[in-house]
Amino acid sequence: MPLILTHMPPIHWALAGAGIAAVTLCLLLFANRRLGISSGFEDVCSLAVTLPYFRRGSVRSGRQWRLPFVAGLIAGGFLSAVFSGGWAPTWDLGMLDQTLALGHAGKLAWMFVGGLFIGFGTRLAGGCTSGHGIFGLSNFELSSLVTTISFLAGGIVTTQLLYRVVFHWQG
Amino acid sequence: MLLLYALLGTIFGFILSRSGAADYNYIQGMFLFERFQLYGIIATAVVLTAPGLWLIKRVGRTATGRRLEVELKPLHRGSIAGGLLFGVGWSIAGMCPGPIFVNIGEGKIYALAALAGALVGAGVFGAIYARIQGLFRLPPLALGTREG
């Protein structure tokens, strides 16, 4: 199946996994930082919100590396688009367009709701796919195993309900 | 160092973009058990990171000679509840936190709404931390649920 962005197949999963491992290890070896992206939401919040939670030492220290890292993520997506035939704004949502066919406002609302769950859930669990799923599991942390099983379960149940029960998706 | 962080982020973002990790269809395909791609990516990343991590911890120093600091994440009720909530969001948006930023860079306009939602979600969590601390047995506010 081609990617929504490039209309080409993705790179091999083993190559992608190896690249992610290399970045994770470089971050620790050269910068003494454990990979984790969801705290970036708190870092951005800390720029505008003055609540005690966002003035903690770990936020003020962590945002010094995480904000440029997150800016890099945006740049990486941008470059990926540029090198695959040019960057252009898009509303393309693949399977969701074939099932629910939301308008622009509907897509924004859908994504905002998804974002609420992501922002609150990742911070409650103390990490996401990167901090728990990749770094935490690689470090044999029990909390990461519990969290990873939980978010995979949450995703599997939600998608199965949405696509198999609500949308009657025929794959 | 700023450049190093930005460079590592750019490489990471490019890989997420081209691997399917930032692609709505591949995320749903993973949760529908129709595509192995994402499971393969995460498993490979863990299998290769684990021995490297073990080695770096054994040496105990970074490349510049600083003492290595790897803070562990605590286990609490929020690990399960937060994980489940995040999973629901990952399914709805088809993005986890990294790919939200990658999709914005790719030009997927709706990803901006996912980011707005995530910022509000994290903001609300920070605002009510002291109130839900007992319910989820969370660490003291000064420590938080740790970085990740």
Summarize the structure.
The complex is a heterodimer of chains A (171) and B (148). Chain A is mostly helical and 171 residues long.
Question: What share of the residues of chain B does DSSP label as strand, in percent?
Answer: under 5%
What pattern of helices and strands is seen along the backbone of chain B? HHHHHH
| Helical residue percent band of chain A | 55-70%
Order of helices and strands of chain A: HHHHHHH
- Compute the number of helices of chain A: 7
Strand tally of chain A: 0
Measured between the Cα atoms of the first and last residue of chain B, the distance is 20 Å
Task: Assign an overall shape of chain B.
Answer: globular
Q: What is the SS-derived class of chain B?
A: mainly alpha
If you compute it from the alpha carbons, what radius of gyration of chain B comes out, rounded to the nearest whole angstrom? Answer: 18 Å
Q: Could you give the count of β-strands of chain B?
A: 0
Main β-sheet of chain A, in a few words? none
Gross geometry of chain A: globular
